[in-house]
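Researcher: I'd like a structural prediction for the single chain below. Treat it as a standalone chain; there are no partners to consider.
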Amino acid sequence: ALNFQIFVSGALLLVSIVRLCGMFLPDVTSWLLTVVWIGVWGAGIAFGVVAGLRANEGRLYRYPIRQTVVS
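Model: Treating it as a single chain, here is the predicted structure.
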């Protein structure tokens, strides 16, 4: 769970930095980056909730993106 949340936080940070630079980009790009940011944030929340429900049932859950940052 920690590796997935680190990955999501990194993606949100990257999109946020690009959005800040988006002041110099066209409005359409800014809106698209906002939609991407909301999508990444929502996916992080949704997968975290699903993992919590599976853990509550006593079952293992594998996140869809498996990046090993902390072993």
